[in-house]
Amino acid sequence: MTDPAIDVHDIVKRFGDRIAVNHVTMRVETGEIAGFLGPNGSGKTTTMRVICGLLTPDEGHGTVLGHDLKNAARIKREIGYMTQRFSLYEDLTIEENLQFVAGLYGLTPAKDHVRDTLAALGLSGRRHQLAGMLSGGWKQRLALASCVMHRPRLLLLDEPTAGVDPQARREFWQEIHALAADGLTVLVSTHYMDEAERCHRINYISYGTLVVSGTVEEVIEKAGLTTWVIEGGDIPRAEALLEDAPAVDQVAAFGLKLHVVGRDPVALEQAVRSAAAAGGSQAAPAETSLEDAFIRFIGTDTSAPSDGGRS
Amino acid sequence: MTLRLSLSRLAALLRKETIQMKRDRVTFAMMLGIPLMLLVMFGFAINTDPKHLPAALVAPGQDRYTRAIVTALEMTGYYHFTHPNVTAPEADALMARGAVSFIVTIPSDFGARVEREDEPRILIEADATDPSVASGAVSTLSTVASQALLHERHAEAQAEAAQRGQLQVIVHRRYNPEGITQYNIVPGLLGVILQMTMVMMTSIALTREMERGTMENLLAMPATPLEIMLGKVLPFFGVGAVQVLVVLVAAKGLFDVPFVGSLPLLLWGVLLFVLALVLLGYTISTFARTQMQAMQLTFFFFLPSMLLSGFMFPYRGMPSWAQGIGEALPLTHFLRLVRAVMLKGAGLADVSTPLFAMGAFVLVFALIALIRFRRTLD
Question: Smallest Cβ distance to A100: which of B12, B212, B219?
């Protein structure tokens, strides 16, 4: 196995008194699609900015693509970073934006790179349109195209699909997988569970601390949860009973089904069975979802919420 | 590493900045509109040596001496008797209303006293609520009046003979014999116009990227601070060149301001000045977080520049602490240079001090700008 693409240890980043990233250690193998999850303001963006050299960590060390974190200039040339907010120039045309990026990375001949990228995007016909006029989905595709044009070895995507429709999201992920198949390493932050499940490994960060990392199965297992589903009968009654039961961590209604999650399998089974019996419903064991696992991880951390890692 | 420069990256940055500048119609119009507006306002409207001021005459006698005095006063160009025959209370009311700037009172025994040679007196009251209005008109008075009387009483030859024995003070208004305000204002405008547009535009250059969220992307790409700075600043040299051309052509064509000095010397001075300005603007840009803040900081700098540089009010008239502040403003030094070169025909040796001062500003601002530039987002 080759060296990991990202290998950082004990990264700490403070903004004034607030600790945005607290001793985060993260490893992403080459060629892997790593998901980066966590509630809003948990430090995902800050961690990504540290990795791509936009922020200097207060503590910690590590390498990105084999270069020391301190060598930001070198790292910048070999990574692509797609920011959360659309950060191409809205007052430049699609073509001019790509030309600018090609110029900054010193791609020669710039014209060919731009032409090929436009063709691959299917935007050749609209290349004279201002980037600001594009729809959300197209902006995001253009942004992605502009940050892979210089063939980076590592791609950092900060909530790339926020506010994009499901169709566009699916196409976007197909593109990510295609890029990864060519050997590109991807670190992508997201709030969507279905996107997290498309990643090879996920890292879950909460209040600046990396809580868990591993494959989807590993993360669910580490959560140590048992799940039951209740259906039929008097669902609201069962829900009311379970809400106060000590063995139950979460109760959530999904349509006509009640999703019950708890840490102690025996106590949970008892509580579920008695609630189901009271309402005349059927109870059956079910698989714990990634979302259940994450809600459990958020619940265990009791430190005060902060207002986010966006500086 | 900070100073590493790649021409191809710089070219990409320059191209992008130029396109953006062209596409921002309002800003672009402002860059050309401000100089024209200032030229028209300062060049045509403002006059620090006002003439033909309305005056009232209170002269119960109305004899030939009175007429001689009135004619002499009107001849100076400062007085225009809009109310040639009013009573003292009427004249007071006129001045209180602001209808006249002067009241000339010639007592009824004036003629008799002149003939007796018994200290004839006239009273001129000036509305000094605005001191600059009164000063020019009042300063010419005593000689005008006494000469008028001499001419009236004696023949020309005798008048000259009478003057010969007296002390004569000869004043030459050098470089601007007619005391035309525009000769002072228009070259100064060159500095003011350049300052307004250059500092303001460059001060919002970085903050705009910050506000639009494009800074993060720009910083994540391999452009060095020097390249980004040059990319932001160089296009304004083109704008500055156009503005210089507009002002110089207007100075010559519209206002007939003499240009006796060396044009290349002036242009070198302009180049240094513009360099200092864009670097100052860029420095402001590194301090401000938003475009609004950048604008506020810019105005914070404009105010002393307009008032203490010697553009509007005489530099020598200020107390030493204010002169000290004035010395710390690039505009002060540029004004000295541009007035010396255009009006006095000063050479390189004469203007070496302002040139050095502006060179120092360039170095200081460049240093601060590069140190302050955040290559990271910390």
Answer: B12
Peptide bond into B84 cis (omega under 30): no
Interface predicted TM-score (ipTM) over 0.90: no
CB–CB of B55/B82 below 8 Å? yes
Tell me whether residues A54 and B19 touch, CB distance under 8 A.
Answer: no
Q: What pTM was computed for the model?
A: 0.77
pLDDT at A309: 38
Partner B contacted by A12 (CB < 8 A): no
pLDDT tier at B60, thresholds 50, 70, 90: confident
Q: Does B217 touch chain A (CB under 8 A)?
A: yes
Closest residue in A to B21 (Cα) is A91
Domains, chain B, ranges and CATH?
Answer: 7-46+180-372 (no CATH), 53-164 (3.40.1710.10)
**pLDDT digits 0-9 by tens, A226-246:** 899 988 888 888 888 888 888
The answer to whether B295 touches B204, Cβ cutoff 8 Å, is: yes
Domains annotated on chain A, with CATH: 6-91+130-220 (3.40.50.300), 226-287 (3.30.70.100)
DSSP string, A98-133: HHHHHHHTT-SSHHHHHHHHHHHHT-GGGTTSBGGG
Q: Which tokens in the block code for residue B120? A: 């004839």
For residue A243, CA distances in Å to A236, A246, A249, A256 come to: 10, 8, 9, 17
Q: Angle of helix B330-344 relative to helix B181-212, nearest 10 degrees? A: 140
Of B1, B215, B216, the CB nearest to A73: B1
Chain A: closest CA distance from residue B17 (Å):
10
Query: Left (φ > 0), alpha (ψ -120 to 50) or beta: where does A280 sit?
Result: left
B376 Cβ contact list (under 8 Å, min separation 6): A53, A54, A55, A56, A72, B219
Interface check for B16 against chain A (CB to CB < 8 A): the answer is yes
A260's tokens: 């019950």
